[in-house]
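Supplementary material to the annual report.
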Amino acid sequence: MSDVLSRLGKHLAVAAAAFTTISFGGPASAADAAKQYFPLATFRVGAYASSGIPVWAGEIDYFRYINEVEGGINGVKLFWDECETEWEVEKGVECYERVKAGKNGSPVPIFLPHGDPISKALTEKTVADKIPQITIAYGRTESIDGRVFPYSFPVVFSFWSEASSAVNYIAEKVGGKDKLKGVKIATLYHDSPYGKETQVPLALLAKTYGFEDIQIPVPHPGNDQSAQWAKIRQLKPDYVFLRGWGVMTPVAIKTAAKTGFPVDHIIGGIWSGSEEDVRPAGAVGKGYLAVTPFPAGADFEIHKRIKENILNKGLSDLKDPKSFGSVYYNSGLIEAIISVEAIRTAQKKFGVRPITGAEAQWGLEHLKLDEARLKELGADGLVQPLELSIKDHEGGGAGKILQWDGDKWKIVSNGWVKSDRELLLPLIYERAAAYAKEKGIKPRSETEVVN
Amino acid sequence: MSDISLPPLSLVPEAFHVPSRWSQGPVVAWLLVIAAYVLGLVVDDYWFNAILIPFLIMAVAGLGLNLLTGYTGQASLGTGAFMSVGAFATFNLLLRAPQLPLPLSLIIGGLFAAGAGVLFGLPSLRIKGFYLTSSTLAAQFFLPWLFNEYGWFSNYTTSGAISAPRLEFLGIDLSTPAGRYFLTLTSVVALTWLSWNLVTSQVGRNWMAIRDMDTAAAVAGIPIAFNKLASFAVSSFVIGIAGALWAFAYLGTVDSRSFDLNRSFTVLFIIIIGGMGSIAGAFVGSAFVILLPILISRISATFFAGAIDAGQLQNLQKILFGGLIVYFLIREPNGLVALFSKFRRRLSQWPLKA
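Predicted assembly:
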């Protein structure tokens, strides 16, 4: 019995020692306080790990490039650590709470939740803590309205813009928006809040341009779609807009090929448009299209710089060098570029030093990336021109169309395909106002300086 | 997955005795409650948002499932669905009947969940075990689909997400981390007290009789149908309130995906690991399932970050956590609570050999 007790005592001592170390951390190094902390919420295990791993590689490679080649952001070097979320909301919230106070005296400028449910759960928490969250191509569409959502930044491309860009690409194909009348566009969507998100904008666009909007749900996870594609064969749409998730996308491509629907008339959405989505479909995926804010390719100027300074020197975080220039790798790169540029913008106003969340929010709302600046960054063609404001946390709203050639993606659209934002924004503002009313939030004025 | 329906006999902890109302248990319990309130005055945001609130809410969800599975012996995989009913009902009450005070909205939200529980519990009058599990599984697929399909439930937001309109009671703003913690803690204390009184009363004894052998219980004059449905109702009521708290006191904004099948499994694992048919078991199980991974992750982040490849490190943590589950279930198949009571018994006889 006594050995049981002594064993227990030993366990307790170990646990106590562990707790002490955790709560007090290591010795705070003064060197870190002069650097910019940038926490990364990653998912290296769990169902989506395979798509996440290249994303962090893109981000970390760019951060290393900034540190190694440019000597930091105006001399302020970045340092980061990872926290595993498994794409799960509880773990994501725990990570956010863990890192939000900063590290070793350096504050958190921006948090990238990397997961739609996590970003939703952080909507109010980020406001209370004054830390902006950037959600590229996910998150609440209404949060484009920064008057109501001051700390949520669905930068670049919302789901509404995704739908509109896809329609505009079809318009290009059929010879102009006036030719859309009578065209049948079937949207095959993952039956979830995410999948339904494009119903409202598509209904509005259908009313405006006169195309026929057909909506067909696929229940999660979507590994049998014979019924849906039988319906598509019967309805004979001109194009299918595929808003898939996970296994749903390759199954859709395979089933389309089986039922004889031309694969080059299927346009995948953002989350149906990566190498990982189309490769499992095999040879029949050749010709498949996808609309994306993350153009694939390793020929952009920044890729050359990263290849020379990071990859060739063995500093890359990439596990599989084949992923260099993939959609997910480039998405991480784009996210990192936008975050770094927001910090740089904030530094112009607040001084060259580590930036706090509230200052980074100002930086994001005054972020302007025009063609000239993008050329300097080497991100010309990779990142679309962006201009954010308090009223517009999206700023871009354009996508490129990719086509799968059986081995890799090729960009087939003529530059960026813009969405009809002027048509959609009033509706988005209306919904943001409804949210503000529901929650009792007093929207900021457009000119208000918050700090 | 194969654990979902344990044979009813293995649900009985060894040396099972009917808990009495005046043992030392309640004294300890009330001391813990006081400690929990005091804790709320001293800790920071991280403890509220990342540790205490999710731990308490999952414990109370486990408690709800334990009433049904642990005490009445009815297997269920619909926990996530009943949580979603509580969340969506409370959301609509807060939104559409703003004159109702917050506690009343929570209670009515719980009653909606109870209604759903009774509805999907009806098959339990005819079927048992695995077959009943598949009936509650139907709830798990149907209800979140319903909330996703009809925009009315989420007030037609584009993303189908719901977000608490206001959290205040008697003029006190409960939307701060501390406010949300005290709201959660008070609900948990009330629901635990309710459950404790139920399982130590005639109702609880009826439920346990049905669990142990329903034919014998029927012969003894216990109305089976009424008690099974009552158990579904009370269980779903508790789970529904847990769902509303999960949505509004913990996350703030959720959509129907937050209450998927994985949520049901998590709650089921909580009671299997903590201890079936035990109120403390839900709390111990929740601590194990929710808090232990956080502890492992923090330890590894402190000692091993940078030394081992980040992906490997995460996988090693998973292996360690899985290994611990296997270890504890081999040591004590009746859950951690049984392990604790064994240990206490040995301690009370110490230094004599047990």
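Chain A touches chain B through 54 residues (CB under 8 Å).
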